[in-house]
Design brief:
With 356 residues, the chain is an alpha+beta fold. It is 35% helix and 20% strand.
């Protein structure tokens, strides 16, 4: 079929709506999780953990971090979900990932290490069957061959085995104690009636789910999902969710996590939004342009800047060291960003915003 021809403004609006960042906010965490397909768990909390910031940006003050903590709690009182590879996903999507789990590990080095440590693998499964769920510190290291690495994972045999077995779908994370994961047999965590979707079909359905969550993307992210599109001022073709075309748009202002999927694909953010960004927490302080954990600023269908902010909980202050303006701020933009900072401080339980 002939590609849809879309101007950049419409492409941006499709992307913002798809990510639930327009004026029509969702009302519950399950809706957010189902649309985004996952929430990424990252421990960095200069302002708040990324998964909480992502949820707050969609739900506003009605969202409380306890809701996500319930979601990863073993009792699952909030809604059915599973945690896999540092992401919380809807349990309804589990069948789309089982074939990929069964083929893991694809990396020859990891596969060889797992085969050399088959007795260790069986020890872990037997222990969890008898005593699970357990924290990693409660699992003895009976490895035959240590895990080789020049980095921080060197000789972290128990952690590597647990993560490999979870990636394979043999064990699963059944909950958390603080930030520490509880491990158990997958058969005691995942619903027994889950059907494994064949790999090719699962890949197609995941591509469709991913494109719906992004609205518009390159084939690298969307495969053959959706329909082809050309976006004015950008090279090559895109894939667009046809259901997202021609929809009305009402925007708002939002402060985003550095891991937010609206800006996660840096090239896409540059092509569609003229937004240059990188996460600078690993950049030496003297070389940072925007800050350790700078929050991208969305205003309607534009990404207009970054806020270098830190939650100083001891002083009950949201400290704003800089607001980096990518475009000249109108009075409405300034007022909207100030209001979002006040809303963020209130949501965090901080007494005030302090401009540095």
């Amino acid at each position: 079929m002939r590609p849809h021809r879309i101007d950049r403004s419409e492409a941006r609006r499709i992307a913002v709506r798809a990510q639930l960042l327009d004026a029509h906010r969702p009302t519950d965490l399950l809706t957010v999780l189902e649309r985004l397909t996952f929430l990424q768990l990252d421990p960095t909390a200069a302002v708040a953990p990324s998964a909480d910031l992502v949820a707050w940006a969609r739900l506003g003050a009605g969202y409380q971090p306890a809701q996500l903590r319930q979601a990863v709690d073993r009792d699952r009182t909030a809604f059915e979900q599973f945690e896999h590879l540092a992401m919380v996903r809807p349990m309804a999507d589990l069948g789309l990932h089982l074939a990929e789990m069964a083929a893991c590990p694809g990396d020859p080095r990891r596969r060889a290490w797992l085969e050399a440590n088959d007795s260790f693998r069986r020890d872990v499964l037997d222990l969890l069957r008898a005593s699970g769920p357990l924290l990693s510190r409660d699992v003895p290291d009976s490895s035959v061959v240590p895990w080789p690495s020049t980095g921080w994972t060197n000789n972290r045999n128990v952690t590597q085995m647990l993560e490999l077995l979870a990636a394979r779908g043999e064990i699963a994370i059944s909950g958390r104690v603080g930030r520490q994961r509880l491990w158990d047999l997958a058969e005691r965590v995942y619903p027994a009636d889950t059907t494994m979707v064949p790999a090719d079909e699962a890949r197609r359905l995941r591509d469709e789910r991913r494109l719906r969550s992004l609205g518009i993307a390159r084939a690298t992210y969307a495969g053959e999902a959706g329909e082809p599109a050309e976006v004015a001022g950008t090279p090559g073709t895109w894939r667009v969710d046809p259901a997202a075309l021609g929809q009305p748009f009402a925007g708002r202002t939002a402060l985003l996590s550095p891991f937010d999927r609206l800006i996660h694909d840096r090239k896409r953010a540059l092509e569609l939004f003229d937004f240059d960004y990188r996460l600078e927490m690993y950049v030496p302080k003297a070389n940072r342009r925007w800050g350790y954990f700078a929050l991208p600023v969305l205003h309607h269908d534009q990404l207009i800047g970054k806020v270098d902010a830190t939650a100083d909980r001891k002083s009950s202050v949201l400290r704003v060291d800089a607001v980096h303006r990518d475009v000249p701020f109108t009075p409405d933009m300034t007022a909207a960003v100030d209001a979002e900072l006040e809303a963020l401080a209130s949501w965090l339980g901080l007494a005030k915003v302090r401009l540095g």
